[in-house]
């Protein structure tokens, strides 16, 4: 197999993975809609050290680490997910556990 064919196969595989990932990220966003009572509160300016995201439930601050249930729908085996590294960014959002 030539290097050109190998490169083309890798590019095709990467494109398929990207398309698959986009559809799965849309699915994740749809799952977040199930949790209507959980809201996001942003404080500070994005891309600064002062930027923070807080989660609230019923007006009370909650921990994304401990207070968001694991299952969105246990029967369908779908889960909630809190993403620390947003897609197509280099920024890593640290989850404070206390």
From TrEMBL:
Its EC number is 3.6.1.1. SUPFAM superfamilies: Inorganic pyrophosphatase. One of its GO terms (biological process) is phosphate-containing compound metabolic process. Keywords: Hydrolase, Magnesium, Metal-binding. Its cofactor is Mg(2+). InterPro entries: Pyrophosphatase, Pyrophosphatase_sf. One of its GO terms (molecular function) is magnesium ion binding. GO terms for cellular component: cytoplasm. It is an enzyme of class 3 (hydrolase). PANTHER family: INORGANIC PYROPHOSPHATASE. Belongs to the PPase family. This is inorganic diphosphatase. It comes from Soboliphyme baturini.
